[in-house]
Write a structure and sequence with these properties.
- The relative contact order is 0.19.
- The strands form 2 sheets. The chain has an 8-stranded mixed sheet, sandwiched between helices.
- The chain is globular.
- The protein contains 6 helices and 10 strands.
- It has a single domain, classed as P-loop containing nucleotide triphosphate hydrolases (Rossmann fold), CATH 3.40.50.300.
- Helices cover 29% and strands 21% of the residues.
- With 195 residues, it is α/β, with parallel strands linked by helices.
C-alpha cells in the first residue's frame, strides 16, 4: 500500500489535515514521525503521540520549534533567528516508514528565499498532498500539484478531507494523480475511505 513507504505530507493550505493524515498513517504502520519545522505553542508531534499511544522512539524532535503561531519565516524573524534548510537532515529511525510532515502549504516561506517545496526536495520522499473537499478543491489542489510537478518532485497522490463531493473527482482528471483516499469526517472514528 502507498502508506507503507517513507512519505512527505504537504497540503494546499494550513489546517487542512496533514497532521490528521500523519496520525492515521502512524496508527496503521507503527512507523516514525518527524516534523522538521513547527510553529505555535501546540506541537503536532505531541498531539500525534497522544492520539496514537506510540512510545517516544517513534517520534523525532523538531529541528526548529518557534513559539509564534505564524509562517516559519515570520516566526523566525520575530524570534530573532533564521531557519536554514541546509542544517536539516533525515534522522535514522528504528521504526519504518518515516512520515515527514511539512508546515503550511507547499509554498509556505521558510526563510527569505526557501519554501516548503525546497524542504520536500531536500527530504526526497514521495509526496502526498492533503486537500479540503470544500468548494474550490480542484483549483487549490491543481495549484499545489503544478508547483510540485514543475520542480519534478514525485507526487503519489491526494487525500481529500471533508464530506464527499463528486466534483472533487476532477482532481484526478485534471491533476493526473490518483485520489488515494478520503477522510470523510475528521472528528469521527470511522472516517477513512479507500478508493
Amino acid at each position: 500500500m502507498w502508506w507503507q513507504q517513507n512519505l512527505f505530507i504537504t497540503a494546499t493550505d494550513t489546517d487542512v489535515g496533514k497532521t490528521l493524515l500523519s496520525s492515521r498513517i502512524l496508527r496503521w504502520t507503527k512507523g516514525s514521525y518527524y516534523k522538521p519545522i513547527q510553529t505555535g505553542p501546540e506541537g503536532d508531534r505531541i498531539r500525534i503521540q497522544k492520539e496514537t499511544g506510540l512510545s517516544d522512539e517513534h517520534f523525532l524532535e523538531e529541528h526548529v520549534w518557534l513559539e509564534t503561531p505564524c509562517s516559519p519565516h515570520r516566526a523566525a524573524r520575530i524570534e530573532g533567528m533564521t531557519i536554514s534548510l541546509e542544517a536539516i537532515s533525515i534522522p535514522q529511525v528504528k521504526h519504518s516508514p518515516l512520515i515527514v510532515e511539512g508546515i503550511g502549504g507547499i509554498l509556505c516561506p521558510i526563510n527569505d528565499h526557501e519554501y516548503v517545496i525546497d524542504l520536500a526536495r531536500k527530504i526526497g520522499f514521495p509526496i502526498v498532498v492533503v486537500t479540503r473537499s470544500a468548494l474550490g478543491a480542484i483549483n487549490r489542489t491543481l495549484l499545489t500539484l503544478r508547483a510540485i510537478q514543475a520542480q519534478n518532485l514525485p507526487v503519489i497522490g491526494v487525500v481529500v478531507v471533508g464530506p464527499y463531493h463528486p466534483d472533487n473527482e476532477g482532481i484526478e482528471e485534471f491533476g493526473d494523480v490518483p485520489i488515494l483516499g478520503r477522510i470523510l469526517d475528521p472528528a469521527g472514528e470511522r472516517t477513512w475511505q479507500n478508493i
